[in-house]
Amino acid sequence: MVESSVCHPLDTIKTRMQLRRQQCTIQAVRARSSLHEPGMNTRSYSSLAEPKFTPLHSSLSEPSNIHKPHAPTPPVVTASLGPIGTARRIIQREGFFSLYKGLTAVYAGIIPKMAIRFLTFEQYRESMQKALGPPDNGDQYSVSVNFSAGLASGLTEAILIVTPAEVCKIRMQAQYHSMMDPTQLSRRKYTNVFQTAFRIVKEEGIRSLYNGLYPTMLRQGCNQAVNFTTYNIFKKKVCEIQGKKELDHWQSLALGGISGGFGPMVNNPLDVVKTRMQKQVKSPGKENKYRGIAQSIRLIYKEEGLFALWKGITPRLMRIIPGQAITFMTYEAVSSACEKRGWFQ
Q1: For residues 20 and 81, is the Cβ–Cβ distance under 8 A?
Q2: 285 to each of 26, 35, 204, 315, how far by Cα in Å?
Q3: Mean of the pLDDT values across residues 137-149?
Q4: If you write DSSP's letter for every residue of 27-88 in order, what string do you get?
Q5: Count of Cβ atoms closer than 10 Å to residue 269 Cβ
Q6: Which of 95, 172, 207, 324 is the right S-S partner for 179, CB 3.0 to 4.6 Å?
Q7: Measuring CA to CA, which residue among 109, 291, 157, 287 is closest to residue 211?
Q8: Which CATH number does the domain 2-44+81-336 belong to among 1.50.40.10, 1.20.1560.10, 1.20.140.10, 3.40.50.10950?
Q9: CB–CB of 107/115 below 8 Å?
Q10: pTM above 0.85, yes or no
Q11: Are 225 and 151 in contact (CB under 8 A)?
């Protein structure tokens, strides 16, 4: 919970970077919907270059027979579109606490997600190794078993917890409303995780809570397969060098952080696709732009360039590495304490 609270702004920054579509033909207009970013206009530029934003005088106006007062134009924030520039723009346009949009969805999912992850990993690992027999090298578990059990636990958590929680989180993070303006706060579409889930089900059907299920499954499966495999390989080597069976807490912390960085480097395109798919609001009679993994990757590559598939990788690594470090250190400490009390025998 502490790690999620501290690192959540990085997740919001990552989501905004992944949702930003770098394409010269795309224009963002100030709209009533809180799901459209206000006050931006893109000039023609390469999909790999940092665009500059200027105030947009929208050509889409209300009918002439309707007279309504114009809302004040949001302040123009001159900033790069990297992590720091994105954070600065969010804070200046929407307020500091906008970096914590979607945190209730994280809180709702973090405890059951971690419980399912480690419980199913241990169960899958025991069952697989028992079915295959003891490994030839004398280890308790083989590398292939650790990899397969991690993959299976990642798929399980994606189906049961992660996908619905991520859909709710991303819908809240994608809202471009100010947290400092009571009027905008009162008009926001999504307020907290339970209201968001209820509204999605009511307006779009329960299947919309599982938008992006397949990329989420692949992302989580890849992450946990790589995390558990690399962590156990590193743990074995360190224990052999030191001639002991258990790691010190600081060693678990360091190895957990290192192992946590490998998965995101490989599967970030899946994370970008997942974010784009889960932000989409289903409309009757209208086909979604992002419909599947392969189609979405091709479309993003065609419209925005290859490096668009690695958007948000910096804040994602900055969030995941310390998170995995704390997770594995806690896991080792709790497991060791339980074994000493004979709870696992």
Answers
A1: yes
A2: 23, 20, 12, 36
A3: 88
A4: -----SSTTS--S--BPS--TTSPP-B-----S----TT---PPPPPPPP----SSHHHHHH
A5: 21
A6: 95
A7: 291
A8: 1.50.40.10
A9: no
A10: no
A11: yes
| Per-residue pLDDT at 2 exceeds 80 | no
d(CA 313, CA 271): 9
CA 173 to chain centre: 11
Please give the residue that has the higher pLDDT: either 285 or 115. Answer: 115
**The two structure tokens encoding residue 65:** 């027979």
Rounded (10°) angle between helices 83-94 and 313-340 = 90
Condensed to tens digits (0 to 9), the pLDDT of residues 60-83 reads: 444 545 455 554 544 444 445 789
Q: Which residue has the higher pLDDT, 71 or 89?
A: 89
Q: What is the pLDDT of residues 150-184, one digit of tens each?
A: 999 999 999 999 999 999 999 999 988 777 778 88
Radius of gyration of the chain measured on its C-alpha atoms: 22
Q: What number is the average pLDDT over the span 112-117? A: 92
